[in-house]
């Protein structure tokens, strides 16, 4: 079966989505990331893996935080990093997306890190680049955000060991979340036997059960005996209007407070992709509490992005 | 004769314009660029030529694409690169251009890459910097864009060999084009016997013949038997109003379509400085066709900018 | 006495203000800066002191000039530098300042260079970072701008030797100036016997004499026999309205013209933090004259910022 992320030897040449990515590839990334994380612990942050390579950060949709993590990851691998705010550039001059890409390729790009408001844009780019050029999806529309999902998998494995006896709950705006989609695919592939989603009906995509998840509309039932609680960020624009009554109402029903968390296993970990809306989707007591692994997620995120870039650079289409 | 770009030994200390630049200097740049281009082909992109040097990109006029090419070129030479969007900075605080320059010089700048909406601004800067500081004009008003012209010369020489038996046509908005001016001077100096310009009367400067070019208003006649076709970008703001009836009308008369290109020699190459307006000055069939060398231009542009910076760094005023 | 900038061994771990900083620490910074300045004179600009370290420029208040000096200083020490315009980023998404800091810390930050419109923000950050993370205040509200004051001390010592027989006048908008506050503290600590401030009453803070300065409202008397004249920048927004009659009126009374400067010692030096408003707080004849050391200040500023970063990196909380 054709997989646009793998070459004919089954090696990773682009990272576009966790959907359809074989478990050995996921584990290869997590294992490589562990090497980088361990080295950083020993204060060996800098590596020469991408010395002489040019990494282009193409953020058609603004995100300082994610762009920064990729910039740091690439610099720690000694790449030359060029960050372009493409919205303000050539597209304004009427150049097509592919013309922009081909131009940057002609400048000697080795890797594109792409965030785009339209689902599928990184796939389109990956289809058209030269065999020695790699594409990393840094978030496309509502579709996928694979490096976020991978750093979440890293975090879960770090604290909980293997996936095959874990119960994981994802809470919040599943409908609009590319993070949730990528997490569900990764968890399923890695053998997690029970993935739950907890959300009001208005924030769930129709047919979400077909992804292999169990649907809950109530926190008490949904969090019961889970090992991992993944909170999603509630976008400001959802907090009023048709989908939700109000932020206060949302917090009351779906905000993670200590009493709701008490239904999970006592050693359950709490995760969040950031940035957090304290008091809306998560209570500060929980966010800063002993079960929170939200800041380690960020640290692992650098190691995971380094691992992805390092692996891609080894493989040709 | 005094040349503000050369020192007393006749060596290049600033690159401000192709006008008045001796042929041996032009060839020195092209030859050095070939070394860098060949090294890049062997995947040796990174050099230490400018290690420890500070290159400042001063873009008083916004241009992500050109700024990016200089940033890449400087980083490939291992320089520290600082990119400043000056419009938004000190000039807003009422500081004069020369105060800004002297301040950056005092910070240890070794080279300024300057783009400015006013013709002559890089010359003013070059006149006031210290003897060990170099200025590269990255486009000033309607005046000059020497690195673009040099990369075009590189491209022509790469595909066509020497200049002394070539017929070159430059097509489009000659009136507002600093690129066209710089190309004409470079082609003439390098011994090209026949340079043609093809444009409607409203897009030609008065007295353009004095630059040594042949003027055509008709594509069929102008492209007849040429070896090289250089298309110019039509700025959006020209496409309506007094100078041109409409974009569609322009394409009909001056857009490069396969049937118009058929009047050129069968092995003629097609060039464009980018970004292209497909369907306005150039047809997609031609832009993506076998005679197009538009993407190689971009690749050569990195090598040419590296060559310019490397040569400048060797010479003192 | 607890000093938030020093560790238990009395070593510098953050640079937040010159207030309360012991003279040996100030001298340590100036001495280290001299090494870097001397090396730069020998064209040895690049050092490996911070190789593998990550320096984050966090400018919550925009300042291209100051940000650039820190960026250059960090790059000359071989650090990886990430510059964030935080105003446009996470704070817009509702994340708290400390959440942003903790996230960047989790990404492996070794040093934060912080500019913030609110006085005290860098102190808040310094109180919450890990023991191996350092904070440099690059200007907070009206409170402090210690690296500017330190480069001014460097400049004075460079031209005038020791501080214990100097008369220094600071002229202009003392009321709103964090630079003036930091200069006064540094001068006093370094043993300068006479610090004067010269300003209209509307631009002086109440009780300024308690800082140990002599107050003058008249330039002739205030500049009489001083060794050093430090002009302050007059912010545009002060030039009209309640505090000042007009820019022209201000220049007449407090602008540094050659005839006013004649009251200082014949070998007095003239300083300005930049960017200058020529013709408002300083006459061009003086700014460009033989007594001006305004551009050397900029050069020394790079060395001083390198020294601060290098010293901080050696010390743990």
UniProtKB/TrEMBL annotation, chains A, B, C:
Catalysed reactions, as listed in the record: carbamoyl phosphate + L-aspartate = N-carbamoyl-L-aspartate + phosphate + H(+)
UniProt pathway annotation: Pyrimidine metabolism; UMP biosynthesis via de novo pathway; (S)-dihydroorotate from bicarbonate: step 2/3
Group of enzyme by EC: transferase
InterPro entries the UniProt entry points to: Asp/Orn_carbamoyltranf_P-bd (IPR006132), Asp/Orn_carbamoylTrfase (IPR006130), Asp/Orn_carbamoylTrfase_sf (IPR036901), Asp_carbamoyltransf (IPR002082), Asp_carbamoyltransf_Asp/Orn-bd (IPR006131)
Residues passing through the membrane, by range: none
Record carries keyword Hydrolase: no
Residues that coordinate or bind L-aspartate: 93, 178, 233
Binding positions for carbamoyl phosphate per the UniProt entry: 65-66, 115, 145, 148, 274-275
This protein's UniProt keywords: Pyrimidine biosynthesis, Transferase
EC number(s) on file: 2.1.3.2
GO MF annotation: an example: aspartate carbamoyltransferase activity
Domain Aspartate/ornithine carbamoyltransferase carbamoyl-P binding: 14-157
The Aspartate/ornithine carbamoyltransferase Asp/Orn-binding domain, residue ranges: 165-311
NCBIfam families reported for this sequence: asp_carb_tr (TIGR00670), PRK00856.1 (NF002032)
Family recorded in the similarity comment: Belongs to the aspartate/ornithine carbamoyltransferase superfamily. ATCase family.
Biological function: Catalyzes the condensation of carbamoyl phosphate and aspartate to form carbamoyl aspartate and inorganic phosphate, the committed step in the de novo pyrimidine nucleotide biosynthesis pathway.
Assembly, per entry: Heterododecamer (2C3:3R2) of six catalytic PyrB chains organized as two trimers (C3), and six regulatory PyrI chains organized as three dimers (R2).
Protein name: Aspartate carbamoyltransferase
